[in-house]
TrEMBL record:
Residues 33-348 form the Aminotransferase class I/classII large domain. This is Histidinol-phosphate aminotransferase. SUPFAM superfamilies: PLP-dependent transferases (SSF53383). Its EC number is 2.6.1.9. It comes from Brevibacterium marinum. InterPro entries: Aminotransferase_I/II_large, ArAT, HisP_aminotrans, HistidinolP_aminotransfase, PyrdxlP-dep_Trfase, PyrdxlP-dep_Trfase_major, PyrdxlP-dep_Trfase_small. Belongs to the class-II pyridoxal-phosphate-dependent aminotransferase family. Histidinol-phosphate aminotransferase subfamily. It catalyses: L-histidinol phosphate + 2-oxoglutarate = 3-(imidazol-4-yl)-2-oxopropyl phosphate + L-glutamate. Homodimer.
Length: 361
């Protein structure tokens, strides 16, 4: 079958994107999905209303420039509108960045494990992938990242807080790193989860962006704003880079409903941040409880927690959660549990306690 159409040979080598599983059902138990780092809270009520209103006119194309959203984001971030690039999620911004920088003969450097799209996007461009292993505590290895850069490198992807492990990048780590990166090489700071970060030394992407013209920010309304299903995010970039990004992003990729929802949610950003900090407080308590149960848990700054487990133990843990109708995410080296409803987290706490006891016994 593979000779039937002229598809790229490289497709056979693409790493798969494995979406978070839906929960299995178990008699008498409400199922919970803690496998995709979604916000377990719905968007704010006025955002839901705005979405319903936008649904009244599905026959019309959206505003291709997302004019109001771009204007509001620019005012909110105190940048020029030419520096804001809307997209269908941060994913589209990341994809566009790879489209404007990577091709065969170039390389891309990124931490690993990190967001699964990075190697997929690199493969799509035929670029050389240079994953740099994280440190044992789940943080970026900045000397390792610097060592991986050479004349072929056109893009560096950083993730703060890192998905799946959780730690954020500190301001001083990023500054030290940027000083080592050639000024013409683009660095993207993927801040999909930055609203959940509470550690004192976490890098402020906007402050860093103002210092380094080759730094691009990728942000999203999918996580803290609870709009993952609508697909809306944005990039903040030097106008030259932003213009190139707009060249490769499909027109109309941000739907009308997504635009009005993002505008409304941004206008209530303070409330969104309060809710994000509540999620963060739950995360910190959950993290501590898993540690108390005997598990090794990284310091998370996102809306999820990473548990280090060998591969057999990770399978056993995932299955034990599934028996409780809770879907979590298993990856190489551990499992990631998204912060969700108390009932769901309590079931995972219980799994953790009996899991460790059975390993000790
Ligand atoms: C680190 C990271 N970046 C980007 C994204 C993409 O988010 P979206 O395309 O929904 O904005 C995700 C989604 O899970 C993520 O974990």
């Amino acid at each position: 079958m593979s000779n039937r159409f002229r598809l790229r040979d490289a497709l056979a080598e693409f790493p798969p994107y494995v979406p978070g599983k839906p929960p299995t059902t178990a008699p008498g138990l409400k199922p919970y999905k803690l496998s995709s780092n979604e916000n377990h809270l719905p968007p704010l009520p006025s955002v839901v209303e705005a979405i319903a209103d936008a649904g009244q006119a599905p026959a019309n194309y959206p505003d291709p420039k997302a004019t109001k959203l771009v204007a509001d984001l620019a005012a909110h971030l105190d940048v020029d509108q030419s520096e804001v690039v809307p997209g269908a999620g941060a994913s589209e911004i990341l994809s566009a960045l790879t489209n404007i920088t990577l091709e065969a003969g170039t390389s891309v450097v990124y931490p690993w494990p990190s967001f699964e799209m990075y190697p997929i996007l690199a493969s799509a461009r035929g670029a050389e992938k240079r994953p740099v292993p994280l440190l044992d505590d789940g943080r970026h290895d900045f000397p390792g990242l610097v060592a991986a850069i050479d004349d072929t490198t056109r893009l560096i992807m950083l993730c703060s807080p890192n998905n799946p492990t959780g730690p954020s990048i500190s301001a001083s780590e990023l500054e030290g790193f940027m000083a080592e990166v050639p000024a013409e090489v683009i660095v993207v700071l993927d801040e999909a989860y930055f609203e959940f970060a509470t550690a004192a030394e976490v890098v402020d992407g906007m402050a860093a962006y103002r210092k380094f013209p080759n730094l691009v920010l990728a942000r999203t309304f999918s996580k803290a704003h609870g709009l993952a299903g609508l697909r809306v995010g944005f990039g903040v970039a030097d106008p030259t880079i932003a213009t190139a990004l707009r060249q490769v992003i499909a027109p109309f990729s941000v739907t009308s409903a997504a635009q009005v929802a993002a505008v409304e949610s941004l206008s209530r950003n303070d409330e969104v941040l309060v809710r994000a900090k509540e999620v963060a407080a739950t995360r910190d308590q959950f993290e501590q409880d898993l540690r108390d149960a005997g598990l090794t848990v990284a310091d998370s700054q996102g809306n999820y927690v990473w548990v280090n487990l060998d591969d057999d133990a990770a399978i056993a843990f995932e299955e034990a959660c599934a028996r409780q109708a809770v879907a979590i995410r298993r990856l190489s080296g551990g499992v990631r549990v998204s912060i969700g409803a108390d009932e769901a987290l309590d079931r995972v706490r219980e799994v953790a306690r009996s899991f460790e006891q059975s390993r000790i016994a």
